[in-house]
Amino acid sequence: MGTSATGRKTGNGGRAAGVPDVDAVVVGAGFAGLYMLHRLRTMGLSVRVFEKGSGVGGTWYWNRYPGARCDTDSVEYSYQFSDALQQEWRWTERFATQPEILRYLEHVADRFDLRRDIRFETTVTEAAYDEAAGCWRIATDDGARLSATYCIMATGCLSAVNRPEFDGLDRFEGEWYHTGAWPHEAVSFAGKRVGVIGTGSSAIQSIPLIAAEAGHLTVFQRQANYSVPARNAPLDPGEYAEIRENYGELRKEAKKTPTGCWWTVNPATADEMGAHERRRELEARWQKGGLCMYSVFADVLMNDEANEIAADFVREKISELVHDPKVAALLSPQSFIGCKRICLDTDYYATFNRPNVTLVDVSDAPIEEITRTGLRTGGEDHTLDTIVFAIGFDAMTGPLLRIDIRGKGGRTLTAKWADGPRAYLGLAIEGFPNLFTITGPASPSVLTNMVPAIEQHVEWIADFIAHARACGRPHIEASLAAEDAWLAHHDEVANGTVFPGCNSWYVGANVAGKPRRVMPYTGGFPAYIERCEAVVANGYEGFTLTAV
Ligand code: NAP
């Protein structure tokens, strides 16, 4: 970087006046940013990646809380773009731990020599489209400025943590942590009075481990969540060898399922099965563990009655696992199953049988304040040495809206998305030329296996950029009509599912004041891929390409 006459750092890199500093800026160095960098670089583009963390990994860099693991099988939650990579890497368990996934991403960064184009510990604060110059002007928190033809947001869906905005937190004399921004140093709970706020995936994974170490653990629950057993285990060497032999075929098959995962999708609706058959299917999936409960009946996410059958089954399991019927009742969700992300656990429900664990219901009596020595809810004081906020994320839109993004005419993305996010295919936004979002709102993203979803986006974006440059019209913009039509389809599909009927982060209900809209595309991965391919086949239908 050089220094301009005004003293501002610039990234001109010796390029001619009027030519952007780099071809592309990528924001984020997680699964999406790493592959985007690799792909663009192999096309010969100059790329700069900005990453807030001090290392690669994104989600897997930040979420270091006890018990953090992926809820998708490790052999599937990995890149497929390089067969050499998937052959040489060895996963050890069915569901990989956070440290193992982080090691994998560090290996990927080294193997493809990616680090030299990544600036770590640098947060992008602004991205503004300069219409006259036809480029993006990027500003970072260290005062640097860089211009780029393309700006690609690889910012993740669950990277903007919900800040704990509780009165009195600044007065708390104990220690507190957020699961999504966990310290790199070891945290000890030994003998302490610990409070966990939240009962989502992060809490459900960490609670059994914290309970095993703490003097006493109090869990503050607002809404209960459905959790099914992970049944994690070391990978069987024979089965793993077979997977590696057939990786290509298995990956292809996975893309034909709505979630992009290999598990068997039951083609029968609940109605088409007898009670006995339904029970067998539910029990088999409970015993198998993992998220295959999502596909227990063809219509489990679309039909209230089918959904109730699956929900009842899990509630019954909870009542068997939790000894105190009052606690079991509190832990039993009454909402649709699956319209909030189903959690995977190892001993979560059994943890509430421990004498050192208490469940406190805060659904009717919200946490009033954090006190010097703990917290107060329902007029009662709870003394705590440590508080763990497992309160989730400003999902999907948060990572984008926390950057000041301005498109044509200086219009902010915040203004454009005032009534909820809108994007064509979840990839591009009208009025924001040459800006792409990887797994953005209105794409299947969080409802699929994230890694293939990311790879599909990265490859689609890279191919589009290659095409636009090759035909001498490198400036790409989605049309409003195309965006409107995609949104109409997106909403229509979502309205035929259980997703709108729950107060989940999928609809933004967990963040006060956030417009309510089902954010991920609910039509399934195959339909989405087909649509993206049709857009290409029709000459990038819905986009305009211009020379300047
Ligand atoms: P989450 O699912 O949004 O859960 C946050 C929890 O905090 C909820 O129980 C929420 O209650 C509670 N909460 C928030 N504000 C509160 C308040 N003021 N008072 C009391 N309770 C409050 O967040 P998460 O557990 O971090 O998980 C987010 C997503 O990340 C998951 O759904 C999953 O997609 C992903 N994830 C995946 C894994 C995995 O792969 N195994 C692990 C962790 C996370 P309400 O439900 O009432 O809002």
Summarize the structure.
The chain is of the alpha/beta class and 548 residues long. The protein has 16 helices and 22 strands. Helix 9 (304-321) packs antiparallel against helix 10.
Low-confidence stretches: 1-13
Radius of gyration: 24 Å
CATH superfamily of the largest domain: FAD/NAD(P)-binding domain
Which CATH C-level class of the largest domain is it?
Alpha Beta
CATH topology of the largest domain: FAD/NAD(P)-binding domain
Q: How many H/I helical runs?
A: 16
How many beta-strand runs? 22
Shape: globular
Largest sheet: 8 strands, mixed
What is the residue-mean pLDDT, rounded to a whole number? Answer: 95
Structural class: alpha/beta
Measured by DSSP, the beta-strand proportion falls in: 15-25%
Distance between the termini: 26 Å
The helix fraction, in percent, is 25-40%
CATH architectural label of the largest domain: 3-Layer(bba) Sandwich
How many domains, as an integer? Answer: 2
- Ligand identities: NADP nicotinamide-adenine-dinucleotide phosphate
